[in-house]
Amino acid sequence: MAHKKNRNVGIIGIGQTKHSSHREDVNQPELIHEAVSLALKDAKLTMKDIDCVVHGNMELFEMVHSPDLWHVLGTGAYGKDSIRITTGGTVGATLSCASDNLVASGMYDIVMAIGFEKLQEGHTTGGITNMACPLWFRKIQAGALTGSSAYDVEREFGLERANRASLMYRIIMDKHACLNPNAHRAFGLDFNQVDDLIRTSPKLVGELKLIEMCSQSDGACCVIYACEKKAKELSKTPVWIRDHITAHKEENFTIFGYDRKYPVLKTHKFAAEHLFQRNGIKDPLNYFDVFEMYDPATWWAIDWIRDFFNLQGDEHLKLIENKEIMIGGKMPINPSGGVIGSNPIGATALVRVAEAALQVRGNAGPHQIPTPVNHALASGFGGTMWTVMTMLEKELNW
Questions:
Q1: How many separate domains does the chain show?
Q2: Collapsing DSSP states into helix, strand and coil, what is residue 154?
Q3: Beta bridge partners of 292
Q4: 365 occurs within a structural domain
Q5: pTM for this one?
Q6: Terminus-to-terminus CA distance in the chain, angstroms?
Q7: Which of 38, 184, 192, 309 could be a cystine partner for 19, CB 3.0 to 4.6 Å?
């Protein structure tokens, strides 16, 4: 059965800063103000038109309590209804879901979502490792999860093929990032460097290499959502939110360690299957024109492609090896350069939605897909195996 909303919701404004390892030229409200100003300009609106502001970041990373109160200097939320959201790495995706729900419910006509992070001003590792009870809630950490994914890929497909697929994916993301003026890391890598990178890239543990991991970035993203009536009045090219889904597990998913018979990362597959089933999509690989995927590491990315599209055997590796995930390929993944290219955590998953919407509108810039984009998919990941998926459409015809 197709997913039904009380009201249709469209994206009418998008703003995004240049992402960088250090934005020492601005403070937090000023950084946010850059994205807000761009989104308002894109939508041809002022703050007077905004009914509600939804703000999100990982406050433990900058270690500023209730930062939305300070950030009104940049968000423009003073005197307006405002909500603060934190859900880990999925903050940005949850911002999008909440904004869509607030508008669809009829509570507000126009909602502004703002995701941001200024990681240079805090201590990310400290924030992660000290945020929960060390006795009960630290069964497994993000690094261990990446390692287990890499180990599984290596065991299933062999070390050489797995290594090459991981580096191929990394180079493709870098090529995309080089086209995106907002991307943080754009090195100019080329495919003839695969063997050199396997041999020379600094290793973290086992086959996990530094270049395969995401960065820590400073940046902000702002997206404006409007009800169907307002969206059609205010925008010539609204991008419609068709559906979204959230799935996550408690942190105590197992107390017996890692066992490949009971994979820890099932939320991607669960979310994808339910989202596609209720929207009548039987072949997502052919239905969607672009996928902005939350890819915090290459090893996760190559494994997750299989989960999201329900691929069998080595189909996901062949997509990478044949460069079918590049701009112009069968399934372009992360034309923006992805999370590996830029990772301002509180904004990262909202950037996925924003970049997917830009592709649908056809004005993403140098990294725009050359063929028409009618159906787009975006994902977010973080927290306790927390997955968010969002479907975007060019037309209201579902």
A1: 1
A2: helix
A3: 378
A4: no
A5: 0.93
A6: 12
A7: 184
